[in-house]
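Batch job 17 of 40 flagged for manual review because the log was empty.
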Amino acid sequence: MEHTAVDDARQASADLTQGRPWSVRIAVQLTVLSAAAFIYVTAEMVPVAALPAIASDLRVSEALVGTLLASYALVAAITTVPLVRLTAHWPRRRALLLTLLCLTASQLISALAPNFAVLAVGRVVCAVTHGLMWSLIAPIGARLMPPTHVGRATAAVYLGTTLALVVGNPLTAAMSQVWGWRLAVVVVGAAAASITAATWLTLPRMALSKEHVQTARSQERHYRNGRLVTLSVLTLVGVTGHFVSYTFIVLIIQNVVGVHGPQLAWLLAAYGIAGLASMGLLARPADRRPGAAVIGCLSALVVAFVVLTVLAVTGQPAIVAMLVGSAAIVLWGAAATALPPMLQSTAMRSAPKDPDGASGLYVAAFQVGIMAGSLAGGLLFACGSVPAIVAASALLVTTALTGVLSNRGLFRLAAM
């Protein structure tokens, strides 16, 4: 049976009328979308989790392997908007299946790569459709739910990204050490293939109306959408600030907080668990008072980075640095994890006639922020200044918070 976006909206409205927007059918579909997010992020971070093993096997430096993350973000940033426009007339399920097929193929190429160059090609195959996937996945989740539940649907989809950081990346790292990085990549590829099949079986086709296609093909109008452009710029600044430090979070925990060995892994786990908890707590406020929720998260990030900066500069006693610094790391995880679904749902609300295109511009800005943050953090690290890294994050996130406070209309609620 073929479904259109209108059919899905009617079904969602019927579910709401019957008091059950979270029906079993919708729960299964959102779970599949969350699984797609999980496997994409896990695959993206494989070079981080398996960096030493890849470098040793391919006989290249660890620094060279590290460039795979920044180059991945660069490719994703460049291809997102053109691919969103190219596939604007496709049924949404078909476009999402394209991204998952590319992900599966990239893992096969990577697992068989005889040298670093072929591995890089495999990464590019995945990166090309990375931004398209993120432009699709949240709007698809939103279409499955009533307009009053957009924030909660987006948070449910983003749950997969947090689980990737808490479960996916540690598992790939462990498999790389025990069985080798190639087998870890094969496992990721097999999971991607399974999720591709589940996507085809469970999601509706989601063909778009002629009016929607005509609107989506006119995506240049998004650059004249002041609300969306402002949100994207502030997102870029904030994401840059986050990744300046996040790229070197292990070194920050070791050198600033003073946590080493197994305790470091536990603190990283606490970072991810705090993110899971905050996403659950803020899912409802993201629909009802998104502005207050975003301001609260940005304020928490500022506090976390300021605390870490003070600890890095002043050199507090070990016990003080460990306790206060650990609390700051957990606060950082809670705030940073909850922000992306709220910001993307806001981007979609800013262009209700073309949420996919608006999401594409937001995702492109997000990817540029990842690239800029990792490169800026690398430059600061090359200068041997960990305090400068966390101070730069504090400055950039404060700038993003100031911009949000100056543009409170960014988060006004409107029907999708």
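Reviewer: the log was empty due to a logging misconfiguration, but the result itself is present. The domain at 1-217 is CATH 1.20.1250.20 (Growth Hormone; Chain: A;). Unflagging and moving on to job 18.
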